[in-house]
Design brief:
238 residues, six-stranded mixed beta sheet, alpha+beta
C-alpha cells in the first residue's frame, strides 16, 4: 500500500469516529412540498354598487346609548299628625211654620215635645232595676218584648232631689228605646214658630230648643236630649 493510500484510509477512519452516534441521514423519499396558498385579493364592489350601499347606510339612524339617570333614594315619609275633627255645630230643631206639640208635666214642671219627635206614649208598668246605672235611671220596662229605658225625669232635671214617685206615663223619644217618665199628660196643641222663643246656640242646655211664650214651658230638643241620656249624664252634664 502506498503512503498516500494509507493516509487516506486513516482519514476516513477518524472521520467515521467523529460521526459516530450521529443519526444517519434518511434515505427516504423527500417530503412533498406543501403549497403556500396564494393571497386572494378581496373582491371590490363596483363603483355604482358601492355608492348605492353608502346611500343606504346613510339613511340608517344611529342610536346613541342612553345613560340611565341615577336613582335617588326615596325620602322617608314623615307621619302627619291627624287633624283634630271639627267641633260639632249645634243646630236647633227644624219644624214647619205651624206644628203640633204634646205637653206633659213632671213634678209640676211642664214640657213640650213636637209630635214629629214623639215615639209613642205608654202607661208606666213594672220596672226592673239595673246596677251600675246613674241615679236618674229608673229601670227597664218590657213592652211587647221590647226593653224600654225609663228615665226618672224629675231626678234628671233636679239631681239633688230623691226619686220621684207616682209616675203614670212614659213619653218615648223619637225611634229610640229611651222614655221620660211623667205624672200627667196635658194634651196636644198647634203652635206657630212665632210662639216659640228659639235658642240660637247650645249654651249649658243643649236639650232645650226654646220656650213656649204663652205657657212659659220648655220645648225639648229630642236629638240632643238623647245624646245626653246615652252618655249617662243629667241636665247639668254630670
Amino acid at each position: 500500500m502506498s503512503q498516500s493510500s494509507q493516509f487516506k484510509a486513516m482519514e476516513d477512519y477518524f472521520q467515521s469516529l467523529l460521526n459516530e452516534g450521529a443519526p444517519e441521514p434518511s434515505r427516504a423519499e423527500p417530503a412533498p412540498q406543501v403549497p403556500v396558498p396564494a393571497v386572494v385579493a378581496k373582491p371590490t364592489l363596483e363603483k355604482p354598487r358601492q355608492a348605492e350601499l353608502e346611500q343606504l347606510l346613510a339613511k340608517v339612524p344611529v342610536t346613541k346609548p342612553t345613560v340611565a339617570a341615577p336613582v335617588q333614594a326615596a325620602k322617608p315619609a314623615v307621619p302627619r299628625t291627624p287633624a283634630a275633627p271639627p267641633p260639632v255645630v249645634w243646630q236647633n230643631i227644624q219644624t214647619e211654620r205651624e206644628f203640633q206639640a204634646l205637653f206633659f208635666s213632671v213634678a209640676g214642671i211642664t214640657f213640650g215635645v213636637p209630635l214629629t219627635e214623639l215615639g209613642g206614649i205608654h202607661q208606666l208598668g213594672k220596672l226592673n232595676t239595673l246596677f251600675g246605672k246613674p241615679a236618674w235611671f229608673a229601670g227597664v220596662m218590657t213592652q211587647r218584648e221590647q226593653q224600654l229605658n225609663v228615665v226618672d225625669t224629675g231626678r234628671w232635671i233636679m239631681p239633688e232631689q230623691d226619686a220621684t214617685p207616682d209616675y203614670q206615663y212614659l213619653i218615648m223619644l223619637g225611634d229610640s228605646a229611651w222614655g221620660l217618665a211623667c205624672h200627667e199628660l196635658m194634651g196636644t196643641e198647634w203652635l206657630s214658630r212665632d210662639q216659640i222663643k228659639w235658642r240660637d246656640k247650645a249654651g249649658k242646655r243643649p236639650w232645650l230648643a226654646g220656650m213656649v211664650k204663652d205657657k212659659m214651658c220648655a220645648l225639648l230638643h229630642v236629638r240632643e236630649l238623647l245624646t245626653l241620656l246615652k252618655q249617662g249624664v243629667n241636665i247639668d252634664g254630670v
